[in-house]
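Let us work through a complete example step by step.
Step 1: write down the sequence.
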Amino acid sequence: MIKRRYMRTRQLKPGMKIDQSVVDRLGRNLVTKGAILDEYVIESLQRLGVMSVYIQEGEMDPEEEKINISPMAQEKIEKLHTADRSKVTLSSSVRERVAQGIQYIYSTSDAKELANTTDSIANDLLDAIDSNNAIAIDIGELKTSDEYTFKHSVDVATISMVLAKQQGLSRKEIYDIGVAGLLHDVGKTKVPTSILNKPGRLDDNEFEVMKQHSVFGYRMLKDQPEFNKEICLAVLQHHEKINGRGYPLGANEEQITPYAKILSVADIYDALVTERPYKQAFSQRDAVEMIMSMTGELDMTAMKSFLESMILYPVGCIVDLSNGEKAKVVKNNPHYILRPVVVGLQTGNVYDLGEDLNCASIIIL
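Step 2: predict the structure and record it as tokens.
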């Protein structure tokens, strides 16, 4: 059975099979999907600044090697095919600037340089969202850095900006929340490296120290004129919960700034789907279901925006249904993120998993 794995470029080994195409900034194909990697190609990817790629693992099942689609099913697939909403994409040059900039943010102590670099990255992300009117996101396509803190900060910023756009916030507000997302973990630069880089889970005392990173970040920004009050409060409050059980202040729903409510959803989701030394990554589906279960902790408006922004089953992908059929996704419904419209590959049956009550018992496995 073939599995797709997201892997850092520096971890690649000769003989691995790449599961994506790699193109340069002019759109020229550098590595084709399905190519077997050798040392030269791996070194070339690293020189080009490609931080991570998808690889294939496992062997192709003979039944998977050729997917047969009946003529009736193909006709319905073509008729019902509805393209997904536009997603955020970053060009190679923007990815390179963002990757360099985010590392600089977490290494500089100069307030002016911190502000200038953050402004540059936030504007790059805003331009990427504006360029194709993006209202959806695929985290795996960002590939901005190998290092967790840097990648996580860009992911949270980008998700938060898309959520803010879903809510109809102004361009300035979307920019501000991008700045807050980029800087939400900047206080970790003040946490002892023995705690920050610990390969296992933190003990209670270590976790208490780690929980102060949002306070440290707030103190680093609050007296800088480039960062307004809402940005600073979002950095301080991004771990607060609407039931008052978050940290560092135990603020309640009314006390939490709207930016922080959005950041919280983005932060939790990205942490869930990212592999760490002490935990495996959750699947996107499992992470979404966990977010949906946190109605007593997360803001409902932010959660709704999140659910309407994520695409779990891209149009065109093949899925296994609980009734034993294989089916192709032909349309996504932003109101039912886990339940798209699919067509059985052999029967041609159309299953509207989100709207048709007759399909209520059918799930995607």
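Step 3: interpret the result. Strands lie at 3-8, 17-18, 22-23, 29-31, 52-57, 318-320, 326-331, 341-344, 350-352.
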